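Hello again,

I reread your note about wanting to compare the complex against the isolated chains. To keep things tidy I'm splitting this into two emails, and this first one only covers the full assembly. Below are the input lines as submitted, including protein chains and any nucleic acid or small-molecule components. They are followed by the predicted structure of everything together. The single-chain runs will come separately.
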Amino acid sequence: MKNDEGGSVERKIIGVIGGSVAGPDVLGIAEETGRLIAKHGCCVICGGMSGVMEAAAKGAKEGGGTTIGILPHTDRHEANPYIDIPIATGIGEGRNLVIIRTADILIAIDGEYGTLSEIAFALKMKKPVIGLNTWDIPGVIKAGTPIEAVGMAVEILSGM
Amino acid sequence: MKNDEGGSVERKIIGVIGGSVAGPDVLGIAEETGRLIAKHGCCVICGGMSGVMEAAAKGAKEGGGTTIGILPHTDRHEANPYIDIPIATGIGEGRNLVIIRTADILIAIDGEYGTLSEIAFALKMKKPVIGLNTWDIPGVIKAGTPIEAVGMAVEILSGM
Amino acid sequence: MKNDEGGSVERKIIGVIGGSVAGPDVLGIAEETGRLIAKHGCCVICGGMSGVMEAAAKGAKEGGGTTIGILPHTDRHEANPYIDIPIATGIGEGRNLVIIRTADILIAIDGEYGTLSEIAFALKMKKPVIGLNTWDIPGVIKAGTPIEAVGMAVEILSGM
Amino acid sequence: MKNDEGGSVERKIIGVIGGSVAGPDVLGIAEETGRLIAKHGCCVICGGMSGVMEAAAKGAKEGGGTTIGILPHTDRHEANPYIDIPIATGIGEGRNLVIIRTADILIAIDGEYGTLSEIAFALKMKKPVIGLNTWDIPGVIKAGTPIEAVGMAVEILSGM
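Full-complex prediction:
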């Protein structure tokens, strides 16, 4: 994409965080969330691996969007097949902080301790976090459905 | 981009490394290198800041390509205006290793100690490094012009 | 220290995590915790900066112990004056993960989102976490006093 | 160690960098270098693994010194047996930057591309680098023997 000066048009980036293993219900929620993010013209950034990360990226590709995967290891070909831009960080779980720093807003879906760690770090960085069936931590904005979560995210982003 | 299964089509990623401050000749070489990389359908990855990084990204946008900027700090809006995908790592100069891990091949242009550090790290990681008027280190493949450098890079990538 | 082969004698390392700003009650708890850790012959590892980190290190020095500070920035002289071994990581908050990976066990004292992030990451890494007046997360072992917390830590370490 | 206020007495930290595989001559030089650093009352910091890193740490323990090992992986028990303070970074080769940021001065011994990368990064960070039979890069201060290298290091440190 180019703007009038030949530069790049900025798009908003929404992070989707959640576990690398998840049941079909959670994966369905993640895929729908990714699809809706793309429909709203935003990029999806995630950890680039399996589970919620893969489902969200798959949904975003269905919706015609762009997907960024911030990988823990050193081989970018480890990314799931729905990642357009795989980044091989080589810094292990430290890559979670890169996701949060790069995202404008986060949607957390389900998840265990890793997701909790990301939620807490995002709140520390003062990034808004919308939660779908995830940890109930003060500061997380609860949503009931993907359509509600993405709607909230887009509204918050429009005021940024 | 989507492939037949709805996934992402892989594109090759070429890293352009060089100093954040450079004279007009070097900047011209970097811009032309970026433009040629884009014309060959490859992504440019770089450090996302000024100097050689900005010139290469500017060239890539002129050539219709996609640009990834791996930033040292925590604010992705620090990226130069030609970066499509800014990644805010927050790991300082450690971000140089992320560029090299993610790139399939590197083109080094001019540069001082920081560029030497990246060249050496790339060679350690067994990534090919093509040099344009840069450090003369055993293992660097020397090129005389951007067209020669990008031609070599594309040829090496086609055999990978 | 040397063992019979001239090598180093391993000592256990206990991480103390908590906020960089804290009231006098919390600081008193942190200092007492550090002192008791040292009395049990263990090293203290912490973030090396102010607040709970400084109080715990101060206590450890009072107790005759060794203190390691894993710093976020690039200047090791930023460490508080009670740190024996300051490590200048330059990776920002990513240094929290280094504390947790290096510690054998963690004691969390008070704290806000940053501490929650560390607790969650430690639990993900399957490191025991003992909590003193901190986040009530499943998996955290609650203690009422420094003497109880350090006693639990030493008992768990003796069984490792 | 304590100073009059009960804090920690600062000691200078000398980094020893070099390959993880080396011949007996190089290992002898590294061990002697470590021993002399300890005799001068300075700490050794290194990568904590095999080769030059292990020999330098072994020498430092022979000399009665303290050794810090900045490890690439997540298990601190991977450190060689001569490391007093093992730091498990989990950031892979990015740990090299932590060594350089923490050291006051570097002594480079032999080594291949990894060592070159560290030398270049140190020079970029404006840390003095003394070279023993290593890469001939402008800015590296050449020494002929361990005694000469450590003597130069101590002299430079005394003027800092």
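For quick reference: The mean pLDDT of chain D is 95.

B.
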